[in-house]
Amino acid sequence: MPSSPCGPGCLDSIDTVGTRRVAARLAGVAGVLLTYPVAHVMTPRGKRELMQRGYARLLLGCLGMRLRIVDNRAAADERGVADEGGAALAPVRYGVPDRGVLVVTGHIGWTDIVALASVQPLGFVARADMLDWPLLGKLAKLMRVIPIERESLRELPGVVSAVGARLAAGERIGVFPEGTTWCGRAYGTMRPALFQAAVNTGAAVQPVRLRYLDRHGVPCTVPAFVGVDTFASSARRVLRSRGMIAEVVLEPVQQPGSDRRELARRCETAVRGVERSRHGALDDPMWIEAGHTRVQDPSVAADAPEVRRPRRLPSLRGRRSTAAAR
Questions:
Q1: Nearest Cα to 248, choosing from 132, 100, 80?
Q2: Which intervals hold domain Phospholipid/glycerol acyltransferase (predicted)?
Q3: Cα separation of 245 and 319, whole Å?
Q4: How many percent of the chain have pLDDT more than 70?
Q5: Which of 134, 169, 180, 281 lies most in the core, judged by the most C-beta atoms within 10 Å?
C-alpha cells in the first residue's frame, strides 16, 4: 500500500485567531453545508456549476482561506495569477463543458477537495469512509464522490472503470495518484493505476500543483492530514489558522497516450519539476503491501520476472489514504 512518513513533526505552527472567530467560522461552515443541498435542488441544471463553484469558494472562506489561482497553460506573457474575487479569476477552468478531464494533484488533506472545486466543480475519487464524516459526508454524496477502499485491491479495476465512464460522459474527475496524504513539503510517487481511465477514454489530463501558504506567502503544512490526525483535530487546526492561502497552479495539459506509467511520470514531472521531496518518495514499483500479505502489483505484466523487495518497516506505513496504489 502507498505509505507516507509524514506525521506530527511535519506540522507548522502559524498565527491563529481567537475563540470567537473560530466559533464564527464553524457556524459559517455549518451554514454552507446545511444550505447547499437545498440550493443544489433549487438551482436549474444549466446554472448549477456556477452555484457549486460559489459555494466551494464560500466554504473555503469560512475555513479562513483565500484562493489563489495560477494558470501556467498559456504563453509566458499571458499567464494569469488572481486571488479570490479578482477579475482574472473567472475565465480559469480545468476544461470546457462536455469534455472529460482527469485532474491530478498531490494530496495534503481534506481541504484539497474544497480548494480544487473552487476553481471549477468536479467529482472526486476519495476514501470511502469520507461518506460517513459529519457534514462533509453529505456534501461528498452530492458531489458524486467515487469511493475507494484502501484495503481492497480487488475493487481497483471497478474504480478505474467508474472513472472512465464518468470521463467518457464528459465529466471532470479529480484523483490523488499518490494514494495517501503527505505534509505538502514532502510528497510521494504518482501511482499509474487511475491514469488508465484517461488512456482508455482518450481524456486529457490536467496536472495541478496545490500548495497552502501562510499569511506571509510561505508554504505551510497546517492543512496536512497525516500521522495520528483525526478529522476533528485537523479541522480545529485549520479553523484556528490566520490568513492561509490555498494556491492552485494549473500546469500544461497532458495528452494520455497509450502508456499509463509514462503518463503518470509526465504528470509528476509537470507538478513537481526538479523539486525533491523532503522525506524522499517511498516508491516500490513491483509490490504492494496489504497488512501482512504482499501481493504483486496488478499493473505488472503477468509474464514479467518476479522481483522481491524487502518489507518496509511497520513504522513507515501511512495511516491516511484516498487513492489506490496502482
A1: 80
A2: 101-213
A3: 26
A4: 75
A5: 180
Which residues lie across from 213 on neighbouring strands? 219, 245
CA 140, 143, 148, 150 torsion-angle sign: negative
Residue matched to cell numbers 461528498 = 140
Instruction: Give the residues across from 245 on adjacent strands.
Output: 66, 213
Taking only the tens place, the pLDDT of each residue in 2-30 is: 778 898 889 988 889 999 999 999 999 99
Burial of 18: CB neighbours in 10 Å, binned 0-12, 13-18, 19+:
exposed
- Provide the mean pLDDT of the chain: 80
**CA distance from start to end of the chain:** 9
* Cell numbers placing 72: 501556467
pTM (2 decimals)? Answer: 0.80
* Cα–Cα distance list, 39 to 35, 61, 88, 155, 319 (Å): 6, 18, 26, 34, 35
Placement of cell 510561505 in the chain: 218
Whose CA is closest to 272, among 174, 188, 179, 172? 188
Angle at 131 between CA 128 and CA 136, to 5 degrees: 130
Q: How many angstroms separate the CA atoms of 301 and 44, rounded? A: 48
Cβ 251 vs Cβ 207: under 8 Å: yes
pLDDT tens digit sequence for 180-206: 889 988 888 999 999 999 999 999 999
Q: CA–CA separation, 177 vs 191, rounded Å?
A: 5
Q: Is 113 helix (H, G, I), strand (E, B) or coil?
A: helix
Cell numbers that stand for 176 in this block = 490523488
The helix/strand count (H/E) of the chain reads as 8, 10
- Maximum distance among all Cα pairs of the chain, rounded to whole angstroms: 62
Rounded CA-CA distance 84/186 in Å is: 27
Reported as a single tens digit per residue, the pLDDT across 223-263 is 999 888 888 899 999 999 999 999 999 999 999 999 999 99
Grid coordinates 494533484 are at which residue? 105
